[in-house]
Amino acid sequence: xxxxxxxxxxxxxxxxxxxxxxxxxxxxxxxxxxxxxxxxxxxxxxxxxxxxxxxxxxxxxxxxxxxxxxxxxxxxxxxxxxxxxxxxxxxxxxxxxxxxxxxxxxxxxxxxxxxxxxxxxxxxxxxxxxxxxxxxxxxxxxxxxxxxxxxxxxxxxxxxxxxxxxxxxxxxxxxxxxxxxxxxxxxxxxxxxxxxxxxxxxxxxxxxxxxxxxxxxxxxxxxxxxxxxxxxxxxxxxxxxxxxx
Length: 245
Ligand SMILES: Nc1ncnc2c1ncn2[C@@H]1O[C@H](COP(=O)(O)OP(=O)(O)O)[C@@H](O)[C@H]1O
Ligand SMILES: [Mg+2]
Hints:
Layout: E1 6-15, E2 18-28, E3 33-37, H1 44-51, E4 59-64, E5 67-68, H2 74-83, E6 84-87, H3 99-109, H4 111-114, H5 121-130, H6 146-158, E7 164-168, H7 176-193, E8 196-201, H8 204-210, E9 213-218, E10 221-226, H9 228-232, H10 237-240
Helix pairs in contact: 3-6, 5-6
This protein binds adenosine-5'-diphosphate and magnesium ion.
Magnesium ion (MG) binds at residues 44-45, 89, 168.
């Protein structure tokens, strides 16, 4: 059994009397794309936020690259953040910064991994070319389409060369063609950089296209997991509900 790059065991998270995650467990193996599907409000974003330390949890353990994240110092969190890229729901670019400045921002923050970089241009250009937007360095976010913003956000994540990328609804709000382009990009990043990813979506076509494995988050739990083919053939109505008629 290889060591999982992420291991979540028996995670619980409530907001007051609202029990969102109730004994949720999953592993992410090196190099795989795992898609998590669940209804709106089922706790997908909460789960990802627990993973990156944006949300606390009530019980359970989360190990990332062999470290229990509950015991990390601020310094260790900083190191981990260069290895775990997180693409928020929406793009969350800094509106007052150019594309170049948006991409430089994480590089300048995480000097430990890269040292003090005098000329960021090669880093910025490599990241932008990976998303097909090498010509946009001096544009402002409000000059970009929704799909371009999403790509720039992805480039900003890639610039740190993370081993893990977490995507929260990467195609939501995009038209079908642009969505497909983003999915192709996510796949090409997986094969080029050998990243391991968790991708949250409620789009079953996205799941089929991009996942090596799927997990259904139902009632706060890992209700079922398997390949798209395996899950799409299940008779259980809770599982069937995710797949097309
Ligand atoms: N900070 C918060 N305070 C209270 N309730 C929250 C908070 N964050 C999320 N929730 C609730 O937790 C549930 C799961 O949210 P979320 O993980 O965002 O759902 P989704 O699966 O659509 O991403 C929702 O009912 C949401 O209202
Ligand atoms: Mg969400």
